[in-house]
């Protein structure tokens, strides 16, 4: 049987509706034992009610937190471990996760900000169009895949740890930064197929990825002083967010990865 | 200059006796066939037999003929294969083409015939008796609870019905992206959909702002490139469709070249002007049925639980895949057969990958029935539904509705010349050159599309009347009303259709 009725108690969940409390502009919702649909309804209801901050306590695997939520200036705080697809399709708000997040953080996000005090799973920021994602720890496979720029804006992802394969695959625009500093992963800073199929935007990796790791369509070079000067304000914001030392971040050289041409597949086709 | 081995397929003949030398042909041809030096002079090698020039020649002086050029007979090495090898030897390129599979595979629709009433139960005259074509797409509950009400029963409040899509006739317009077709094509489809009480589909290129007034009649598509997808877009549609595959190119992504991403298209796709729009072959957040469920439910969360469909190409294991899609929570499964059209696809994929729609619908419908989940999702059938006959037959095989793309373009003037990928469509459909796109007046286009849907709906009513039923519901999945002529026993068994005579 599918679990579709709003407010129904799904398997493993003990409470139909979350208790919530409003103090000033902050609504606090206890998510312990509550099914995801009820959590997300409570988040939307709190926001509709004018709460500028929604604080979620005891989050444990509930999916789609912040998914499809609109409005700059709104803030969602997640205490615990959210389930998949945090801030998917999000347009404007800030989501701050005090814990690890799973797959699909910021998937097809239009604008806003996601901060994760921990690591994230696969497909971080897939197709992200604007806004910013800061991850303190590691990212899984396919992070920053097919990021785009739009309308004079560009999306930004900074990951403090390491990342797995296909980092920045199909990247069409935006900025993707990998620091490799706060990592629980063994092995190189980034996996194979880095920037495979990349045709826009730029990637900075702190250190030097090896040739076998990079896709065929990109060039890798040590970042110039001018490029580092443009990158530093973002790194500074990142350090301020997580209480890191900017000087330590900047103490190692960065490699800049960019598309070799804007049309990697031009000339591939013919016809009768 | 080295010799050109690929010889022209057509010959443009101009009757010099009647030619006015007005130059209309030069102006009408999108392929630059004609140059004008005292009179129009054709370059046969550029002609695609799209008939634009001859249609608009005031003197009716032009005919297009198949080139009589003889090739040494060889049924294995057809002229088309020889030409392909020559062109690829010249360029080293992947052969690109447009529209649907043109290979002479067995067409199952043409080997199925419908039943009719004679003597023992009366047929119905649809002109004088009510005939219901209304169709609802979406999930139906496994069971409902009713309560006693004054003199009868009614559904209990909060019975938990999912939102459904209402169609006045079981036809929708197939997804064709803004980018692959012009904005005037989208306008024509949108206006016609509203007039017919049906839906059109954005395809994967976003929804142009001019078409927001028609948002109640649109399915908005989410494909792997996520072009034009944001919360507002998802919420505008009557339904949301996750495009996994396309019948013309199963397993293949899309690629709108940067030169086609002009200001309007780039804004609608939400990408920078002039940048390549690459749709990866898979969605990189869907590697499993569980992942698909996650995407379906994230869209439902973002839209207040609108219907979400999943479009796939019909491939070998389609029944199991469709079962997974339904279990993942999709409200409809869109099956696109191997004759489905495209704006651009590698010819080798278009012509050699996928299975026929008729087979796919039959096996999916049967599988979902066998598993007891048929009511959870509707089936949309597409991939060269060419007439109301195909429409009736595929509904009898188990579809709830059909989507028409090629037929809709043909209504708008398409001549199936297979040049969509060139961006120079003389009929102004699959192009963005302003001098060509303005050839399609959306009002004219909407009227023709409305006429086509109206005509097919009338014909469908005639078919239902002959079958002695008064609602499309009674034909749905009723394979007993079909018989095969000339299909082998195993194909009949797979289709669940008896041979004629049994």
What does it look like?
The complex is a heterodimer of chains A (272) and B (502). Chain A is built from 3 helices and 13 strands. With 272 residues, chain A is α/β, with parallel strands linked by helices. Chain A has a domain at 118-259: Glutamate synthase, alpha subunit, C-terminal domain (Pectate Lyase C-like), CATH 2.160.20. Chain A has a 12-stranded mixed β-sheet, sandwiched between helices. In chain A, helix 1 links the parallel strand 2 (26-30) and strand 3. Chain A is globular. The model of chain A is unreliable at 1-8 (pLDDT under 50). Chain B is α/β, with parallel strands linked by helices and 502 residues long. Chain B has 2 domains: 10-93, Alpha-Beta Plaits; 135-499, Alpha-Beta Barrel (TIM Barrel), CATH 3.20.20.70. Helix content of chain B is 29%, strand content 17%. Chain B contains 15 helices and 23 strands. Chain B has an 8-stranded parallel β-sheet with strand order 11-21-20-18-17-14-13-12. In chain B, strand 22, helix 15 (489-495) and strand 23 (498-499) form a beta-alpha-beta unit. Chain B is globular. The model of chain B has no long low-confidence stretch (mean pLDDT 95). Classes of the chains: A alpha/beta (272), B alpha/beta (502). Chains A and B meet through strand 13 of A and helix 3, strand 5, helix 5 and helix 7 of B.
Tertiary shape of chain A: globular
Q: Show the largest interface.
A: A-B, 53 and 49 residues
> How would you classify the quaternary structure?
heterodimer
So how many helices of chain B?
Answer: 15
Order of SSEs of chain A, N→C?
EEHEEEEEEEEEHHEE
Give the distance, in angstroms, between the N- and C-terminal Cα atoms of chain A.
Answer: 53 Å
Proper CATH architecture of the domain at 118-259 in chain A: 3 Solenoid
Number of strands of chain A: 13
Shape of chain B: globular
Mean pLDDT of chain A: 91
Q: Compute the gyration radius of chain B: what is it?
A: 24 Å
Q: Sketch the major β-sheet of chain B.
A: 8 strands, parallel
Strand arrangement across the biggest beta sheet of chain A = 1-2-3-4-5-6-7-8-9-10-12-11
Category by helix and strand content of chain B: alpha/beta
CATH 2nd-level architecture of the largest domain in chain B? Alpha-Beta Barrel
Q: Might you state the CATH topology name of the domain at 118-259 in chain A?
A: Pectate Lyase C-like
CATH class of the largest domain in chain B: Alpha Beta
